[in-house]
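Person: Please comment on this record:
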Amino acid sequence: MSTHSFYRRKSRAYKTKTGSLISSFNGFARFGEEFIDYGECLECGKKNTGFNWCQSCNSKHFRNCFLQWSSGNREIDKFIRNSQIFATSRDCVLDWIPYNQLTSFRILGRGGFGIVQRATWLEGQIDQIIGWNYLQRKWERHGRTRVSIKVLDNSRDIKVDYFHEMMPIFGTNSLSEKLLFHHIRYLGITRNPATQKYAIVMQYIEQGNLRNYLEKNYSIMNWERKLFILQYVAKGLKILHEADIIHRNLHSGNILIHNNLPLISDTGMCRPANKLVQSDKNEIYGVIPFMAPELLKTGKYSKETDIYSFGLIIWEICANHPPLNEHSHDTNLAMDICLGERPPIPEDTPKSLITLIKSCLDAIPENRPSVAELFNNLNSWYLDLSQINRTEYYFEYKLADRLRLKGLNKCSKKPFVKNHPEACYRSRLLNFPNLPKPINDKFGDVKLSLENFMRVSTRYEDADDDSNEEISDVEEYLDDLIERVKAFGKSKEIFKKIDNSTS
C-alpha cells in the first residue's frame, strides 16, 4: 500500500468517526456517557479506543520509544510512561517536552504556587488524524502549538506524589474522555535547565479565568448565560466526585474560559510541589473566602468542602465580584467564617438560587447538597430558560433579567468594587490552630442567645432560694455565651449588654 493511499484511508476513517460522534452527541453534557464506535485499528484490526487510537498498538509504540527520552527523574519518567501506556486516546497522553522545544515565552500572571506563562511548543501534540506513522515508525506531530505553562515554585526537590494526585485526570480509564470538555487538558511536563524548576504544559486558554470573564462581560451576562456556566461547571465537578476525586482548591480563579466554555483546572494541585500530602496537619493551602469552615478548622478536604466552594462560585456569579472582598483575609476572617460569617446574597438573586447558595454554605457538611443535586437543579433551570419552558423558574429568572437590565440602564458600567488591601485570592499557606466549632448564622445565633439570656436572667433575679437548679442552668448558659462571644473580637457592644443585664 502506498503512503498516499494509507493516509487517505486514515482520513476517511477519521471523518466517519467524527460524524458518528456528532450524530450521537446531544449537548456537551452527554459526551462521554454514550458508547461511540471509533472503528477498527488499521494495524491489528481490533476496535479503536479513541479517534484513530488503538491502546494496544500505541502502547507498544510508546514502549519502543522509551529509551529516546528521559526527564532525568526516574519517578517522573515512570509517571509519564504510565500515562502513555494506558492512554485510550491522544488527549490522555502526557509528553516529556524538552525545554528547547518551547519558545516565545510571555508571563500571563501568577497563581498560588507558580508563574503562568504563554509559550509555543514547536513540535506540538501527536497529530489527531495521522498519529503513529507505521511506515516511518514514528509519531507524527501537529506542529507549532500555543500552550500555557505553569512553572512550579520549589520544584527542584519535587515530590512525586504531587503528580500522582493528578494521575486520574490523565486517562488510566474513561475519566479523561468524560472530562474532555470539562477540564483543562494537561499536555506534558518540562524543566527549565537554568532554574531546575519543573513546569506543567497545558492547553492554552484564550479568555482567562472566570473572575476576569465576569469583569469583562458584566453587561451581557444574562441569567441564561450564568446558569449555563454554573450547570457546566457542576457537570465537571460531578464527573470528578463520581470518580471519588476531590478538587481541593475550587474557586473562580481555577475556572478557565475557553471558547466560551468553563473548564475546571488545577484539580489536586492544592500545595507546593515540594510538600508531601498531609505532611503537616496544621498546614493547609487555599483561598480563605472559598474554604469551608470545617476545612479551616481541621485541614481535611472532602466532597462537601468542594460543594461549599462551589456555593461561593454561584455567589460570585450573582454578585459580579469576589466574596468577602471587603475583609482582610486573615485569622479573624477564618474565625468569623467558622462562626457563621457569609457574604450577603444580592437582593436581585432569584429565590431558587438563594436557597441553593444557602444550602451549599451550611456550616454542617451533611446539610449541603450533593453535586448531582446541584447539577440537576442548575441544568433544569438552564433548560427552562434556553428552551422557553414556561415554568415558575422560567418566569423567576426572566424577572431577574429585567431587574438586571433596569440596573444596567441606570449604570452602563460595572460598579467599581474595591478589595480590601489585605484580601488575597491566590492559594497560600494558612495556619489556624485554634478556631471555634463551625456554626450557622453568626449574628442570628448571638441575637437569639442574648434574647434568651435576657429572658432567663429576669427569672434569675426573681427566683427564691429553692431555685438552685435553675440558677445553675443560667450560670452555665451565661458562661457558654460569654465564651462564644469572646471569639468574635468585634463585640464590645454585646459585652456591654451582658454587663448591664447582670449588674
Notes: The longest strand covers residues 102-110. The chain has two domains: 55-203, 208-459. The chain has 16 helices and twelve strands. The chain has a mean pLDDT of 79.
